[in-house]
Amino acid sequence: MKFGPASPADAVGGVTVHTLRQGSLVLKKGTTIGPAEVDALNRAGVKEIVVVRLEDGDVSEDVAAAGIAQAVAGQGIHVERAFTGRANLFADRAGVLVVDRAAVDRINGVDEAITFATLAAYKPVVEGEMVATVKLIPFGVEAKLRDAAVKAASGGALQIAPYTITRVGVVSTLLPGLAPKVVEKTLRVTAERLAPAGATIIAERRVPHDEAALSAAIKELLALDAELVIVFGASAIADRRDVIPAAITEIGGAIEHFGMPVDPGNLLLIGSAGGVPVLGAPGCARSPVENGFDWVLMRLLAGLKVTRAELTGMGVGGLLMEIVTRPQPREKPGTDGNRNVAAIILAAGRSTRMGGPNKLLAELGGKTLVRIVAEQALASKAQGVIVVTGHQAEQVEKALKGLKVKFVRNPDFAEGLASSVKAGVAAVPENADGAVICLGDMPLIDARLIDRLIEAFAPDRGNLIAVPVSDNRRGNPVLWSRRFFNELMTLDGDIGARHLIARHAEAVAEVPVDGHGAFLDIDTPQALEAAQRG
After folding, report:
1. 400 phi, psi to nearest 5 deg
2. pLDDT tens across 213-228, in order?
3. From residue 3, how far is each of 17, 118, 139, 166 by CA, in Å?
């Protein structure tokens, strides 16, 4: 292949290397020079242009890319027409992408001119999804290099394994303290996981967490022709002799592997009974967030056996996310269950909905709203009270005269609630394990509720956020572990942290409350009048 500058007349048959713009002339990269192009170049006054010419024994970039792509495409994959040296490969059907890693490496090792990229091996894909691309770097290559890459493909480096399992049985074991809504949510999340594969839950059973009951339930599902059985234990599998593996072996099944180097997902168990795979699900499988359970489940649904060697090889890339519910090294002995919690009162707002007066200085029962809230926080088990002021800071601070609180001024209070949250969090003492964030306009929040939130806060049990709840509504105040302070510091505008609660649902402890105190904020004259009427 020849590469270099040439006069327009001598460039005939060559391909432009760069896009050329001169006056009204635009000649795009990759244009083959013919008589019309020569005339246009001469009229534009172009004396020289860089082109590339194929020589005997060369093939163009599109021919090479198309040939290699066709060679790597196995079952369930089609190749679209090559253009600009690129040939893209797409899934013809839903399934799991199977990649021959060695073949991919061989193709990329032929020459730097030839590149081949794929999605991650065993990724679930949908019909029409792009799964790989072949890209030629230069405008052409020697035919022998193209042929070497085709040979390296070994008759197909990629294929889509179609989903073959459609009938799934689910067993949930039960222990005191496992709420029915947890089981219901698990079933809903599982059904959503199965749906892209065309699989459904044909039957589900709920039995005590003991070997005999579980064995009977698995046998019952197998008798219903379940092609896969998933067991969600009320208690995590701790050993090969634990309830779930023992139940599988009790009915003549086998435990193929326990544990995997994917986090979350460590405590997954793969077994079989009567030729049907049985999965002991890790606790994280109750969550819709991707975890190691997904990696194994989707392969099994595509009829792909997951060997011990494949499981143990998942460690690189197996750390999917930090699991916030785990105890952290910073936990110190001697603290009361890690309940050293500060209280933050947000009292910096402009009270725009009140139409003028500062609502925090309005009185209820002879006391200002902000003083009522502060006194309740001080009467609680919170270790120190921080009051964030901003709008009319002097008047708010005067209303709290005599109370043992720490004032923090928020110069950015006009930007919204988030700025006050950040000011308060930044002021929390370093030895505090968390903070309960109270609103200065919620006078019906009392010390007992704050104490209940603090009691529900249990990092050693994964309870890192405590929220009052009534009739499936979440109210205020909310207690946050220090683990989330960095995320709270990223808040912006006048929006609170509700989205963070949703993001970390597995870390939330809900505290049932009666009445409407956790939901009543006084931000309008009408609300104030209603509260004053009692």
Report:
1. -105, 15
2. 999 999 999 999 999 9
3. 9, 30, 10, 57
Provide the pairing of β-strand 228-232 with 200-208: unpaired
Strands (E), 149-288: 158-162, 167-174, 200-208, 228-232, 254-258, 269-273, 276-281
Whole-number Å distance between alpha carbons of 168 and 373 = 53
List of domains in the chain: 2-53 (3.90.105.10), 58-162 (3.90.1170.30), 167-313 (3.40.980.10), 341-525 (3.90.550.10)
Does the pLDDT of residue 13 top 70, yes or no?
Answer: yes
Ramachandran assignment for 410, one of left (phi > 0), alpha (psi -120 to 50 degrees), beta (any other): beta
CB atoms within 10 A of CB 201: 15
Q: Look at 6-10, 272-276, 302-306 and tell me which has the smallest mean pLDDT.
A: 6-10
pTM score of the predicted model: 0.68
Question: What is the rounded distance in angstroms from the CA atom of residue 297 to the CA atom of residue 302?
Answer: 9
What are the beta bridge partners of residue 228? 168
Q: Which helix (H) or strand (E) element contains residue 181?
A: helix 180-194
Rounded percentage of the chain residues whose pLDDT exceeds 70 = 95
Question: What is the rounded distance in angstroms from the CA atom of residue 3 to the CA atom of residue 419?
Answer: 60
pLDDT tens digits, 345-402: 999 988 777 766 888 998 888 899 999 999 999 999 999 999 999 999 999 999 999 9
Mean pLDDT score of the chain: 91
List the structure tokens of 401.
């005269």
Candidates 73, 102, 94, 69; CA nearest to 161 is 94
- Please choose, from the candidates 115, 104, 111, 108, the residue with its C-alpha nearest in 3D space to the C-alpha of residue 145: 111
pLDDT at residue number 334: 40
Tokens 């230069």 locate to 138
Question: pLDDT at position 323, please?
Answer: 59
| Residue found under tokens 């402890």 | 509
Contacts of 241 (CB under 8 A, 6+ apart): none
Would you state the torsion angle of the CA atoms of residues 54, 57, 63, 69, taken in this order, to the nearest 10 degrees? -130
Handedness of CA 487, 491, 496, 498 (dihedral sign): negative
* Calpha distance 48→225 (Å, rounded): 74
Q: Look-up: residue for tokens 């799991």? A: 96
431-461 pLDDT tens trace: 999 999 999 999 989 999 999 999 999 887 7
